[in-house]
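Field: sequence (string)
Field: structure_tokens (string)

Example rows 1 and 2, in order.
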Amino acid sequence: MYGYRETALRHPNGIPSWVIDDGKATESNLFYPFLTVQMQGHGFGSDGCMHKATNECMIASSICVRMLDRLNQRLAVRQRGDTSTMINSAAFSIAMNGAVARIYVTFAFDETRDHVHKVDSFVLENPSHYRKFHRYIQSIIDWGKNERLREIRDTIEVIESSGPRWYPRYEL
């Protein structure tokens, strides 16, 4: 799982409590994850089921999208009357079984449904597929470390600077 450590989201007044409540991934100390990887074994003694890995990807990436949706909802409340800008809440996931890898992107247009799209599939034994897979991963990580992180920091700053500091987790 790729996301952000608390230090990446550090705010001059400390990390807001609502960020901890809304954006922290449960099994890791990462906030607002943008890439999850689900790996199933491959070969004898292993089921290597891509179907299972894909289902787990869909669940994990949907949770990641919803975390950013909550941040977008807080931003919308603060920007009432202003031109509303939203953070791209897309999340990527990779399902693998040792021989095949598939990259998915999950996004939501509204609060009721998530959409999952298969970006590409790769046979990892094929050198050209492996290089292409590596380039995709590097691009996703670069996006997450730069553009997306900047958007999240800016959004937290807007939310924190335009409202009362008391009990922000109960607002919205």
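Row 2 begins here:
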Amino acid sequence: MLPAAKFLQSYFGGSMRIRTPLSVVVPCYNEQAVLPALHERLSTVCRGLGTDYEIVFINDGSRDATWDAMADLAARDPHLVCVNLSRNYGHQLALSAGLRECTGDAVVVLDADLQDPPELLPDMLAVMRRENADVVYGKRVSRAGESWQKRAFARLFYWGLAKLSEVPIPRDVGDFRLMSRRVVEGLTALPEHHRYIRGMVSWLGYKQVAFEYHREPRAAGLSHYNFQRMSRLALDAVTGFSVRPLTFALKAGGVCLAAAVLTLAAALWSWAGGSVPTGGLLAALFLALAGGQFLAIGIVGEYLGRMFSEVRGRPLFVIDQVLRSTHGAIHPRREAA
């Protein structure tokens, strides 16, 4: 038996054992072109571990033939589980659906674009075994194939999040990570709708160690994370793990009030000296006050909007169909999550 298989059986055995020693969870959106290579590389790595495993693909409302490609692969691979969401919910909720559906005692998460090499999984398992850790997260040493704009945005994002977050969240770390079953169960138990999985894992605690690696270029297609999606993820990260923007609005209001007092004092001084205050000075004061008010209202609105999403009590996502193959036969399941 290979070392990785012995580790999976010993470390996750006993009461924690569910059905499968290892699950690989992969959210997919318009990944038809890369699915065959992704499936082949994942299967090769998992077979080499010498233990039972499952690969969970989640179709996040793709517009191409991603779901058809998944169904075709599932018909030929009994280790493959395919989850079809009813529409596009976004990467973080698709990942949440996969974590809820998987049965592994150890769970690895990676993106479908193969920028996070599946071949690193045995080394990550070795780190988990050596460090007796619950989480081994991939820390990017380099980011090949990414534009300077995206790299600059990422540096700014991680710097800002480190300054604002009340929970320490590692820098240059994505969703590529290996987790124990109790961490996965902790994640699925958290109810918030605006999810930032990386921050949620950090919030859960347990022993977490870094695994440095070089991120590769996309195997096929273009990145689906445009500036708008990255901005939304950044907003979810900040509002989900910090109330400091609210205190910033309070401080900004104080600055605006101080500026108003100083401007009023300058205007009175000018009037006492016989001159009339300039319109530009008054216009600047008005703009400063108005800008501060709108900023404060906008920040409070973001938090209130998120509170409204939580109290509505809607499900995080709706699963249209789940495909599991056993003994060469496909067993579909339909449900709302």
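free_text_note (row 2): The longest strand covers residues 20-28.
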